[in-house]
């Protein structure tokens, strides 16, 4: 193997640098949203940011942790509920949203301690049981008044325009923060461990990856992220009716977005959330058939295109838009005999 | 005595849970798949029986003669179109695909039948509420007795089928080593097809009792899946008689929960399920530690 010494390994390709700069510019531009867009568009974009959070967080859990949960609505609902509770206790509204996510993240620690010991399918439905139980217990709180629900009354202190703008910024900031967090996590040691677990957790354990500890981090992060999304959704909707927040439909949305976009990739869930947003905007009014379509799409992608739109695109064109993987740089003139095998997919 | 009656009703409820749980447990035992659309298939069967009774005046007992083969055929289709492909895709795909399927089925049912709550009870006349009175507080519903009997017959029949018949033995062999059974002339794909057909046919029987003893609507499937799953986990995965015991324990926990507090039925069931999970995780290591300490004490 002459010439091996000439091989280099790179992460930042020029294209990745341009793409990351462009993505940051778009995020920066979006910060001026409330000044630029109409009220309706501002509200819809806030929803899109929340969808991105949900998709990215579910992907962290399933795509990297290998943990399919159909009970993430537990954390979505608890996030909203804790925000209502904290706000009722006198904490000002927007800090309460963030604090709610942290509290739910803390609650997820003992829940994960038990649930993470279950195997695949048992974990999936076990989480649904947790969600049902959380819903029932929240209903017992006199403040919530059962299914009647309550409202985030403290938001009334803000004018409609100010509230819309503040919620928009909160959702945008939360999305940007979580995207950055997942991005940095994937680039670091934890990310390498996660990708090893994603590909084969037994093999990962055999080379010294601490599988359970790593899954614990992922579980708590996904729970706190879903809780933040729930709290932000509360800020957009104002009313808190438990069954609307603890509905398994939220998990159906998360699965749809992640599967269609691309499970186990960084870009996929973001793309999936945008696609979901477009589909919802176009067909959401058609009710039941829209839900049938979402289920059928999830079923179809799981069976026939498990890598999703982004996964298929990346496998074909290897766009390397983000500096997440490592790429072998061949010396000039050396033709790779194995085609693209030499690259490690991120 | 009221207390005794609660426990008795819990046992009958548990027999129903064993009926909805046995096919979930069976399919998991054979293919290592948890079918997240399991509850939805139960509800499909209930709606088929409802249509036969409502439109054609066919009582559910006769309706089952038609619906069981139809559901078995649906099971075969499920295996060929969804599960077979899912199995090749790794651990996550069967969960994702059957969850997607459940969403499709539930919403198609909603499209077809609307949000109304239905029941098969009107189709069986007096039997729906007839009961034997044992004492002032203790009564046994005749339908409940039929459900308990049905659960014992179905579980016993399934056990006998797996132990005694050629197909049953092929199913057990395939469950043990799907990649190897081809060597002894068993077609694993066909066995999976039969197993799924049997599981969904059993779901049809469960659907009949869902409709007879309670009410259902297009979105009832999720709850049936959860109850079935809880019964299976409490009783121990893979053991059919364990499923009956698991179902009964779950049913008793729920009725006692309802006895204590009006909201207690579901909370007690889910809470008890989680308590069993926690106990299973932490009690064996604890027992082991105690045993070691005991041994040390003896040695000293």
Written description of the protein model:
The complex is a heterodimer of chains A (346) and B (300). Chain A has 346 residues and is mainly α. Chain A has one domain: ABC transporter involved in vitamin B12 uptake, BtuC (Orthogonal Bundle), CATH 1.10.3470. Chain A has helices spanning 14-30, 33-36, 39-64, 73-88, 93-115, 120-140, 160-187, 189-199, 201-206, 211-237, 242-245, 249-261, 267-283, 288-304, 308-317; strands spanning 8-10, 150-151, 239-240, 327-329. In chain A, the strands form 2 sheets. Chain A has a two-stranded antiparallel sheet. In chain A, strands 2-3 form a two-stranded antiparallel ribbon. In chain A, helix 3 packs across helix 12 (249-261) and helix 4 (73-88) crosses helix 10 (211-237). The longest helix of chain A has 28 residues, at 160-187. The radius of gyration of chain A is 21 Å and the shape is globular. Mean pLDDT of chain A is 84; it is low at 339-346. Chain B is mainly α. Chain B has one domain. Chain B has helices at 2-31, 38-56, 60-88, 92-113, 142-164, 166-176, 188-213, 221-235, 240-260, 264-299, and strands spanning 131-133, 139-141. Chain B has a two-stranded antiparallel ribbon with strand order 1-2. In chain B, strand 1 (131-133) and strand 2 form a beta hairpin. The radius of gyration of chain B is 21 Å and the shape is globular. The N and C termini of chain B lie far apart (51 Å). The mean pLDDT of chain B is 88.
